[in-house]
Amino acid sequence: MTELLAEAVDLRLGYGNQVAVAASRFTIPHRAVTAIIGPNGSGKSTVLNALGGVLEPLAGRLTVLGGSPRVRPPKVSYVMQSLAFPAGTPITVREAVGMGLYPKLGWFGRPSADDRARVERAMERLGVTDLADRHLDELSGGQRQRVYVAQGMTQDHEALLLDEPLTGLDITSARVIDQIIHTERERGHAVVLTTHDLDEARAADWVVLMAGRCVAAGPPAEVLTREHLADAYGLGSLHAHAPEPDVLDDPHKPDAPGHDHSRHQHPH
Ligand SMILES: Nc1ncnc2c1ncn2[C@@H]1O[C@H](COP(=O)(O)OP(=O)(O)OP(=O)(O)O)[C@@H](O)[C@H]1O
């Protein structure tokens, strides 16, 4: 049996008494890259929050690495760039990356030489060493995103949760973070990321397709089908998320629709 990072059973997640996600069952494998994809408001970040132990389920069961994520397993590193630091926080890049040590040290623990080396290594891996003494406020969005991922890397972890890590990045920054994601997997870690990019989801080992519920979870080829995407995104937006044009146009490809040209019409 595949080793699991997470398992959800009859899970309900939400805010106050508003249910945002109701999912009967889905799993996320360990030591693999999982992409959570779905339309705006479909519950991707909500699921990540629950996996990261930031949000308690309203009902049902969610286990991460065999336990409750609320008893924050220190082995799960959650990078929440959107919430991490309010604008104007007077903090340097090195300090921000060093905050990845807090789950281990607590707020008042003193970092050892090893801990400090870990911070430097994470900054090197993300290519932000030159920015170490700069204030976060002085960075571009892409540079800041690298800093957040470096913070996640600093934490001793088996699983890395990343909220839209590649969104809005230039090719260089995206490549750096993409490389990190794949190195993490090679090290036997799990990476769970949220995305709006179908290609990013196709490149993952496992996909969870959300629409306020789990539409499907499994390998990309089984999840990112026309039917599932139509279910999640609605028929009206299907053409925007359909396979690449060359797949649509080449009748020899297994996924091609043959002579069915109806898919080229834009439904209104
Ligand atoms: N802090 C909150 N308080 C109340 N409702 C929330 C909160 N965060 C999210 N929601 C609601 O929960 C639902 C799911 O939101 P969530 O942020 O998980 O979606 P998402 O798929 O990540 O969206 P996006 O693609 O826009 O980032 C939405 O209806 C949203 O309005």
Q: What is the helical fraction, as a range of percent?
A: 25-40%
Spatially, the strands of the biggest sheet line up as 5-6-7-3-8-9
Number of helical stretches of at least 4 residues: 11
CATH class of the largest domain: Alpha Beta
From N to C, what is the helix and strand string?
Answer: EEEHEEHHHHEHEHEEHHHH
Structural class: alpha/beta
Query: Can you tell me the residue ranges where pLDDT is under 50 for at least 5 consecutive residues?
Result: 238-268
The kinds of small molecule bound in this structure are:
adenosine-5'-triphosphate
Rounded to an integer in angstroms, the radius of gyration calculated over CA atoms is 20 Å
Protein name: Metal ABC transporter ATP-binding protein
Biased composition (Basic and acidic residues): 241-260
GO molecular function: ATP binding
Domain ABC transporter: 6-237
Please characterize this protein's 3D structure.
Pfam families: ABC_tran. Residues 241-260 have a biased composition (Basic and acidic residues). Belongs to the ABC transporter superfamily. Keywords: ATP-binding, Nucleotide-binding, Transport. The protein is an alpha/beta fold and 268 residues long. It has 3 domains: 1-72 and 157-170 and 189-233, Rossmann fold (3-Layer(aba) Sandwich), CATH 3.40.50; 76-156, no CATH class; 234-268, no CATH class. 33% of the residues lie in helices and 22% in strands. It is built from 11 helices and 9 strands. The chain has helices spanning 44-51, 93-98, 102-105, 113-125, 141-154, 171-186, 198-203, 220-223, 226-233, 238-241, 245-249, and strands at residues 4-15, 18-29, 33-37, 59-64, 76-79, 159-162, 190-195, 206-210, 214-218. The strands form 2 sheets. It has a 6-stranded mixed β-sheet with strand order 5-6-7-3-8-9, with helices on both faces. A 3-stranded antiparallel β-sheet has the order 2-1-4, with helices on one face. It is globular and about 50 Å long. It starts with a strand and ends in a 19-residue tail after the last helix. Residues 238-268 have low confidence and may be disordered. The structure holds adenosine-5'-triphosphate (ATP). Adenosine-5'-triphosphate is lined by residues 15, 20, 38, 40-46.
